[in-house]
Amino acid sequence: MNAPLAHPKPRAADNVIELEKVRVTFGTAKNAVTALAETSLRIDKGEFVALVGPSGCGKSTILKLVAGTLNATQGNVFVAGREIGAGAARIGMAFQNPTLLPWLNIRDNVMLPLKIVPPFKEAFGAKRKTEYRDRVEASLKQVGLGGFGDKFPWQLSGGMQQRASLCRALIHDPTLLLLDEPFGALDQFTREELWEIMQNLWIEKRPTVLLVTHDLKEAAYLASRICVMQARPGRIVDDSPVPFARPRTIDVSFEPDFVTLTQRLRQRIVAARAVQEIVS
Ligand SMILES: Nc1ncnc2c1ncn2[C@@H]1O[C@H](COP(=O)(O)OP(=O)(O)OP(=O)(O)O)[C@@H](O)[C@H]1O
Fold first, then answer.
1. C-alpha 104 – ligand 1 centre gap (Å)
2. What pLDDT, on a 0 to 100 scale, did the predictor assign at position 114?
3. What percent of the chain has pLDDT over 90?
4. Where are the domains of the chain?
5. Fold annotation for 13-89+208-279
């Protein structure tokens, strides 16, 4: 069983993520797996950070720590608003597979956070057929799903379901958006379309975003900073800013600086994988 977190010091800035020398160990004795060791990471308000690295290096583990669904074995995890209780961070999440509820239509699926997240939930009864409905329609329209609110998930393609999942992740204006390979299962063209939509939403609302991805082009197109991880022990071994001006178009991915950046990251990951194989 994981030990409770040491009580973190309150910070002045709101909505900052900070991992301080975090260790996460799953299992015990000879079955123990150290997923993260001495991992430190700070993300400021409004940053868009991508986490990349070889399979099993601990990317999703970091996401779970930040989401609060997993406790660190050692070290501190600070998410502004969560520990100190003042104005709790509003978290939105999207995963590789759309997790829409099959018995609800798309409108009600997208509306779900408004039903359960404060301050929206207090007015849910009064606003669900007016203001909240309009809000959902506007959001669906923004991702090209205008008029699909009455459909059920099984009546939509995988790409359309993923668009609806993004709407649900964003409908309550999250201050913190956690994305675990949300575009991973889509074809290249749908993926690029959704990158553009995601970028526009980030520019408009400026949530703090932590994106886990295996796609270096996606990381360099979307993020303002890219952290490369290495396994055994899991930790961050490279932390690079992404300097390209916004709004970015897909054309940026053909520019020499972009190609140089993704090649460098690729080499870093190849090196990280090699270390992983030697240690395993
Ligand atoms: N619940 C668990 N019990 C035991 N080991 C776990 C558990 N969750 C994760 N691990 C191990 O911790 C390590 C990190 O896993 P994690 O899922 O964070 O990696 P990842 O970088 O997200 O991988 P991928 O890119 O393949 O999704 C892996 O070795 C994994 O096997």
1. 31
2. 95
3. 63
4. 13-89+208-279
5. Rossmann fold (3.40.50)
